Amino acid sequence: MTTRILLLSFYYPPDLAAGSFRMEALVQALLKESSNNVQIDVITTQPNRYIAYTAAAADSQQSPALSIRRIGVRPHKSGYLDQTRAFASYASGVCKAVRGKKYDLIVASSSRLMTASLGAYIAFRSKTPLYLDIRDIFVDILPELFPGRLGWLAAKTFRPIEGFTIRQAKMINLTSPGFFSYFYARYPDKAFSMRTNGVDELFLSPPPPKHIVKLPGDVINVVYAGNIGAGQGLDLILPQMAKRLEGVAYFYIVGAGGGLDNLRQALQLANVSNVELIAPMERSGLLAFYQKADVLFVHLNSFKSLHRVIPSKVFEYAATGKPILAGVSGYTARFITTNIINATVFEPCDVDGAVTGLKDLSLNFVRREAFVKNYSRLLTQKGMARDVLGMCHTV
């Protein structure tokens, strides 16, 4: 008997997003682990993560056990209003696409809660079991994104939506163990698992080990690759940091997002000459930048709500064997310090700490074989697929 699974993910390849790669790996793991008795319907969007990145993708793809439907949404610049409009288009398209269809299980992956809530609504309406993959704590960050009464009202508005969403699920996966204390305190009767992000196959074979010799006066190449938004807070650290390191380091910033204009303006105001902003690109293209890098840089804003997360980029960085400079705190800092060798951590937005951390790094290639093995995407998504299929067998 065939098990029918509906999978909702706002982003899916060829789109560029952590959730996109994560869900593609889950789909492949489900197909492999299911012994050919599963039908998966993926409903996602046409690529829209960054307005500066375009990729052609068919509206519909069909294979014996997998169908992918991509719903067109309005282009957006990662602002909250235009992203809200884009999601409204997606939600409307999903509801139309599933009308009259029967599923044995619904899987929804979400960072900003709304795709998870859409899955919960469909599950509630159709009386179908729900599996959630939660990649962030949206309600927790709202008071910091919107200080004052607006943030309080936003959190108050979304808290009941979060409650409905989580209570509707039979199982909830959390991408960071740092999320557990928040969710368990509020929903102690729910079943939680912790399947983190992982290292994709593309990054499993780092360049051969070599000793990086930097002579006095040589410039250190520092690469940041990823989203540029309020959560990363690059405009709060990079201009001052780069200015302090003129003649010492050159920064390549690969990515885009709602904070890109703020970053560009801050760099101009600081009259910085050693930062290059580069448009988002496919991950295969990033390999050239990683090979060029002497140091890989990651940074999160000083929001307390971000103390719980593990940036997906950390796994990718670690697999390269390159030194890592991380502006993070809380659980994030402990995870990096405990699990990744040749990585220095400093407090977010602390320019002095960043400069000192860069100087403390050893500019050598290191093999992080244990980390790569433990956090292989193949391994993490295999476990996640077994959780999902296990639910199918018990409902």
Could you characterize what this model shows?
The chain is 41% helix and 18% strand. By secondary structure, the protein is α/β, with parallel strands linked by helices. It folds into two domains: 3-198 and 377-394, Glycogen Phosphorylase B (Rossmann fold, 3-Layer(aba) Sandwich), CATH 3.40.50.2000; 201-374, Glycogen Phosphorylase B (Rossmann fold). The strands form two sheets. Strands 3-4-2-1-5-6-7-8 form an eight-stranded mixed β-sheet, with helices on both faces. The relative contact order is 0.13.
Low-confidence stretches: none
Number of strands: 14
CATH architecture term of the largest domain: 3-Layer(aba) Sandwich
Portion in strands: 15-25%
Give the CATH topology of the largest domain. Rossmann fold
Q: Fraction of residues in helices? A: 40-55%
| N-C termini distance | 14 Å
For CATH, the homologous superfamily of the largest domain is named as: Glycogen Phosphorylase B
For the report, how would you describe the main beta sheet? 8 strands, mixed
Q: Over all CA atoms, what is the radius of gyration? A: 21 Å
Shape: globular
Strand order of the largest sheet: 3-4-2-1-5-6-7-8
Rounded mean pLDDT score: 93
Integer count of domains = 2
Helix and strand pattern: EHEEEHEHEHHEHEEHEHEHEHEHEHHH
The CATH top-level class label of the largest domain: Alpha Beta
Structural class assignment: alpha/beta
**Count of DSSP-assigned helices:** 14
